[in-house]
Structure formats: structure tokens, C-alpha cells
């Protein structure tokens, strides 16, 4: 029996794709990640270099997205560009990001603006990053600065995946730098980011027209038989804490790719050799999104959700369509079960720089030639646009 699943359609629902500045713009030389990529013994496979030159080519990127029938674009503002030295604001860079917003609006695309997507200005990182005495004030000042370009913007993400940042900081503080995985988070960093987030929400709400939230990397923690308590203990500092903070927000960004099974020893259970893996080495598990939405709904007590990332690293675009079909089926079921979801933003619009893994894992709906920067939409882009227009999953 085929189940009849209905999905909402554009324009009432946000259907689009996500990116992040460091991963697509290129030349982000004043950021801590650029420094990390270029440090002796760097764990990064390669430099982000020119990335995919979206800093200059964003009009084409937005046009391709809009032409496919999508109506939302999530991108990030790069703090290291807007405030290249402490207290020194670049009006030209603010104007650049305002042009990105204007380009979206002119194309009928709703901009979803992330204020901080992992990368920090070097000056901020060098004085201790989130652990510096006045880190929250410095971040709040940056947020206030960016408000000057947020006219007509309705969706703002304050901090992307603070839970992953806390895990990265947890790993580095125990001097197992870059053993990122799901390391025990630095709980001080979690609290500082929560404080910074609340300050940003307050500033953004002051504008009157902005709805603010943060995004949480959802790992769909599952318990192996008998490991329920171990699962809960593992999940709390890595995920639940951040969802609890989101209870007071206007929306919460759900970012979902995979699941993690926790064994009775309280550690993730490695998956077997028979499991299909993606180019990031993750289990191919499209059901993750529906489960992540239901979990987030429960933990936040029903705060509206925006899928701010969901996708798969694969060189086979048919697998991307298959994965996304499974994910959207899960989303449709979650919605019919009472989850309030306001949009689906696929990760990613473009093949891009995947942090330590470099350019090899391709998540994009659009391929990019690394030498000429020529964009070539994959079939999945038109496919997602059709889903957005019709609310139907073909096949
Ligand atoms: C993250 C990000 C993205 C990634 C994506 C795929 O969570 O790491 O928000 O920057 O590229 O999740 O790994």
C-alpha cells in the first residue's frame, strides 16, 4: 500500500538551500579557519583558497536557485570581513552583504541570514575566542553592527551549531586537537554561547521584524538495547542542552544528516561494513530528518522549526535524490504528526569546502568547476524545485 504523503508548497513554505561564507566565498584570510588551514601540521586536507568564489558569483548562485523554483537561501555573514580588526567596521563589507540580501529579495527569494557559521575573526580567536573575558560583548557588538543591513530580513540564525563548536573546543582543550567526532563538549563554552545567543536574540527582536533562533546539529541518538540511560547521558550535553536553550526562541534550526547509536558503555557503536556510507564516511540514513524533527519538537516543547541543513555527500546525484526523498517523507510524516515546520533548506546549494575534508565530499545541488568556477546544476536542483512547486515526491 502506498502511503499518501503531502508536503507544503512554495511560497507559503520556505523551500531552498543553505551555504556558509567560509565554505563558498573564497579568500577568507582574516579568519581563524584560514589560519588553521595554513598552520604547520594542519589537520585540513587542503586550503579553502578561492573556495567557489561565491563572494563574487553570488548573483548567479541566487539566480540558479530561484530559476529552479526555490524561494529561500540561507547564507552567512562573515564576521572576519565585517570587523577585520577589533572595533574596526568595514562599511564596504556590510554593503556587500546587503547586496546579497537585495539580490535575494529581487529574485523573490527569502534570505535566511546566519551571523556566525563556525569561523571567527583572527583577532577574536587570538584573544581567547569564546573564553575571552568580554567575548559575549564583542559578539553582541558585531550583531548590533549587522542589524544595520537587516531591513526586510525576517529569519536570522545567531550561531550555527554551537553544540559542534563546544565539542570541538572540548576536544582541543584536552589536547586531542581535531579529534572532533563527538568529543565530550566543553560545557563552559556551551554556556557562554548560550549567553551570547540570548544577547543576540534580544538585539534582533528589538528590530521588530526579525525572528531569531540558532541551529543545532541533530545526531538522532539511538540507544542500543539496554542503553537508554547511557544514551540520555550522552545526548544531554551534546544536543539536548542546546534545544532547551531554543525553547525561548522564535524558531529552531534543525540540521540533520545521520544517526548515532549509543552502546551500554556510553560510547557510539561503530556501524558494520554492510552499511552504505557517504563521502563523509557517514551512514546513509535518510530517516534521520523525520526523527530529528520529532525529537526537536519534543525537547523544545513545540518551537517552530526550520530545517536549516539536510543533505548527503555523494558523487551520485541519483543517491542525493533518493536520500532527499526519504528525508522529505520523514518530514511529511513528522508534520502530519503535529510538528510545526516552516521550511526546508537543503545542504548545500553548491559543492563547497567541507572543512577538514577539503573539497572532496560533494554535498551540492550545483557542481562547480574548481578552475573556472563554472556552475553546473545537477538534476537534483530541478528535482527539488519541482517538489517545492508541487508538494509531491516523484517516483
Ligand atoms: C556543519 C555545517 C556545515 C557542514 C555540513 C556538512 O554542521 O558542519 O553547518 O558547515 O558543511 O554540516 O558536514
TrEMBL record:
Q: Does the keyword Cell division apply?
A: no
> SUPFAM superfamilies this protein is in?
(Trans)glycosidases (SSF51445)
Q: What is the lineage of its organism?
A: Bacteria, Bacillati, Actinomycetota, Actinomycetes, Micrococcales
Gene3D superfamilies in the cross-refs:
Glycosidases
Name the UniProt record assigns to this protein: Family 1 glycosylhydrolase
Q: Which PROSITE patterns match?
A: GLYCOSYL_HYDROL_F1_2 (PS00653)
Highest taxon listed in the record's lineage: Bacteria
Keyword Phosphoprotein: yes or no? no
Signal peptide positions on this chain: none
